[in-house]
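Students often ask why inverse folding is considered easier than folding. One informal answer: many sequences map to the same fold, so there is more than one right answer. In these notes we will look at a single instance of the problem. The structure comes first.
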C-alpha cells in the first residue's frame, strides 16, 4: 500500500494542471482549439521523434508499437460497433479514440518513470508509440469519418506529421544517428510542454461542471472499454506470452498493462476539438476518467505488480 500511496501523491500535480486549464478557459478565455493545433502538429511529433531517437531499437522492440497498435484496433472496432447501436447523438465516432488509446503520454510517462525508472521508461515509450500511431491514423480517420467524406478524412490523416516523425526517427536511430547536443534542451522543453499543455486542454474543454458526464450512455461505454476491456486484453496477452509464447519479458508486460489502465487520452479532446465532433462530451468524459484514474491506477498497480 505504500507504493500505491506514493503513486497517488505523484499524480496530484496532474490534476492541479487540469484545474489550471479550466481556470484559463473559464476566466482568461484561452482557446483550447488553438492549443490543440499546436499539440497535434508541433509538440506531439517532436516528443515522438525524440523518444524513438533515444530508445534501444531491436527487431523485437521495433515490433512493439505494431503489437500495441493491433490491440488498439481490436478494442476500437469492437466498441465502435456497440456505439453505433447505442448512441444516436453523433458522438459514436469519438468512441474508438476514447476506448482504444489512453493518456499514455501526459499521464502515463510520469507514472512509468516512477514505477520502472529510466531504463523501463524507454520500453514504455516504445510501447506507447503504438497508441500514438493509432490515435493519429486510424483513430483520427474514424473520428473524422463521422463528419467528413472518406477522401477528406484520409487527407486529414495524411497531413499529420506524427507518423512521419516516427518513421524518420526509426531510420535515423538504426543508422546510428543521434540528436545534436545543442538541440537536446529544446526537445526536453517540448516534453515538458507536452505534459502541461496536454493536461490543461482537458480543463479548457470544461467550461461548466454542470452536466459533466453528458450522455450517460457515451460515458458508460467509454469507461467500460477503457477500464475493463483494455486491461482484460492486456492481462490475457501477459498470461499467454509468459506461459506459452515467451517472446517478451516482464518489463514489456508491465508496460503494456500500464498503457491499458491509463485514463482516456487528452488527445481525444484535442482531436474532437479540431474536428468539432462532440468536444464537450469528449472533454467531460475524459476529465471524469482522469479523476477516476486517480484511485484506479494505484489500486490496479498494487494488485497486479505487488
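Output (designed amino acids):
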Amino acid at each position: 500500500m505504500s507504493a500505491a500511496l506514493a503513486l497517488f501523491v505523484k499524480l496530484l500535480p496532474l490534476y492541479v494542471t487540469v484545474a489550471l486549464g479550466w481556470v484559463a478557459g473559464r476566466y482568461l478565455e484561452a482557446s483550447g482549439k488553438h492549443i490543440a493545433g499546436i499539440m497535434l502538429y508541433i509538440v506531439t511529433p517532436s516528443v515522438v521523434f525524440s523518444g524513438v531517437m533515444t530508445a534501444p531499437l531491436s527487431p523485437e522492440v521495433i515490433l512493439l508499437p505494431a503489437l500495441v497498435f493491433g490491440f488498439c484496433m481490436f478494442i476500437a472496432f469492437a466498441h465502435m460497433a456497440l456505439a453505433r447501436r447505442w448512441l444516436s447523438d453523433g458522438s459514436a465516432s469519438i468512441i474508438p479514440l476514447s476506448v482504444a488509446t489512453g493518456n499514455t503520454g501526459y499521464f502515463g510517462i510520469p507514472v512509468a518513470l516512477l514505477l520502472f525508472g529510466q531504463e523501463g521508461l524507454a520500453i514504455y515509450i516504445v510501447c506507447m508509440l503504438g497508441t500514438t500511431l493509432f490515435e493519429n491514423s486510424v483513430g483520427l480517420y474514424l473520428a473524422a469519418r463521422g463528419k467528413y467524406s472518406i477522401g477528406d478524412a484520409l487527407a486529414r490523416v495524411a497531413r499529420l506529421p506524427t507518423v512521419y516523425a516516427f518513421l524518420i526517427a526509426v531510420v535515423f536511430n538504426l543508422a546510428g544517428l543521434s540528436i545534436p547536443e545543442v538541440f537536446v534542451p529544446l526537445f526536453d522543453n517540448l516534453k515538458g510542454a507536452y505534459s502541461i499543455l496536454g493536461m490543461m486542454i482537458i480543463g479548457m474543454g470544461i467550461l461548466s461542471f454542470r452536466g459533466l458526464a453528458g450522455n450517460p450512455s457515451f460515458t458508460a461505454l467509454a469507461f467500460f472499454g477503457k477500464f475493463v476491456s483494455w486491461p482484460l486484453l492486456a492481462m490475457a496477452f501477459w498470461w499467454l506470452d509468459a506461459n506459452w509464447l515467451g517472446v517478451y519479458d516482464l518489463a514489456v508486460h508491465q508496460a503494456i498493462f500500464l498503457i491499458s489502465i491509463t485514463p482516456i487520452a487528452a488527445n481525444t479532446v484535442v482531436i474532437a476539438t479540431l474536428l468539432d465532433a462532440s468536444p464537450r462530451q469528449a472533454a467531460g468524459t475524459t476529465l471524469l476518467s482522469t479523476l477516476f484514474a486517480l484511485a484506479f491506477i494505484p489500486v490496479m498497480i498494487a494488485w497486479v505488480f505487488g
